[in-house]
Automatic annotation (TrEMBL):
Species of provenance: Prauserella oleivorans
Pathway: Amino-acid biosynthesis; L-lysine biosynthesis via DAP pathway; DL-2,6-diaminopimelate from LL-2,6-diaminopimelate: step 1/1
Record-given protein name: Diaminopimelate epimerase
Keyword hit for Plastid: no
UniProt entry keywords in alphabetical sequence: Amino-acid biosynthesis, Cytoplasm, Isomerase, Lysine biosynthesis
Family matches, as Pfam families: DAP_epimerase
Length: 274
């Protein structure tokens, strides 16, 4: 086995280890993902993005490249809105896509992207479907929320008090019967007609500084509560700001994609993590 190439990047400080693996040869076990994402014994990240050809995985996708996304605890998720921006920028900079427009495969389906000259990326995230209502519990406080499916599950609770003050150190509770596969929990302030503030507690990760699918869910939920299904908004998260547009058929997410480092994993370390 040769050295394993990696890159470290982030989208609004939701950070990822990218593993280029065109032929799908890496044995990416949950234990290896969890070790890579650990901030003390690994590189540290909220998730792993394996860059693999759709054909190598036998995935039914028109997109040449598939984003094999894993959460920091090793679990698999359908989609990652911040990750797909970083993934798209990697494909262009590595010369694997000519850009600026192409599609990226994901477990939630193909996602058309546009990589802009300023390195930001716009992603067509597909429809954000309102699937009902449920409750999140933070420190004994019940917060009603709007359930939204953006390819992965979300529950968006809109609060009158400042979400910056919420204590999210412990995992909030939610209705496991309503969300048998788990859920990403967003806490939102509506600042004015077209600006939101959000914090998020991600399934399989914990609190992160941003969640792209979560920002789309937040805008869709805020529009739903205002009695409409289309509109645009900025969303401020602890890691920065993104722009979101939602209509009945599609949604778009625009935000930054940054690279921090690239290198090679130590082979002995990798083989010890099973
Ligand atoms: N941070 C991501 C979402 C990653 C997946 C999520 N934790 C899940 O399990 O559904 C984003 O930017 O969308």
């Amino acid at each position: 086995m040769g050295g394993i190439e990696f890159l470290k990047g982030h989208g609004t400080q939701n950070d990822f280890v990218l593993l280029p693996d065109a032929a799908g040869e890496l044995d990416l076990t949950p234990a290896r993902v969890a070790a890579l994402c650990d901030r003390r014994r690994g590189l540290g990240a909220d998730g792993v993005l394996r860059v693999v050809r759709s054909a190598a995985l036998g995935v039914d996708s028109a997109a040449e490249w598939f984003m094999d996304y894993r959460n920091a605890d090793g679990s698999i998720a359908e989609m990652c809105g911040n990750g797909v921006r970083v993934f798209a920028r990697y494909l262009v900079e590595a010369g694997l896509e000519q850009g600026p427009e192409f599609a990226v495969g994901s477990r939630a389906g193909d996602r058309p992207v546009r990589v802009h000259a300023d390195r930001s990326v716009t992603v067509h995230m597909g429809p954000a479907r309102i699937t009902g209502s449920s409750v999140a519990i933070v420190g004994g406080r019940e917060m009603s929320g709007v359930a939204v499916d953006v390819g992965n599950p979300h529950l968006v609770s809109t609060l009158d008090d400042d979400v910056s003050a919420l204590d999210l150190r412990d995992a909030p509770r939610y209705d496991h019967d309503f969300f048998p596969q788990g859920v990403n929990l967003e806490f939102v302030n509506v600042l004015d007609g077209d600006a939101l503030r959000m914090r998020v507690y991600e399934r399989g990760v914990g609190e992160t500084r941003a969640c792209g699918t979560g920002t789309v869910a937040a805008v869709a939920a805020a529009l739903h509560l205002a009695g409409t299904d289309h509109g645009s908004s900025t969303v401020d998260i602890p890691g920065g700001r993104v722009s979101v547009s939602v209509d009945r058929e599609d949604s778009t997410l625009t935000g930054p994609a940054e690279f921090v480092a690239r290198g090679e994993l130590d082979e002995t370390w990798w083989l010890r993590q099973r």
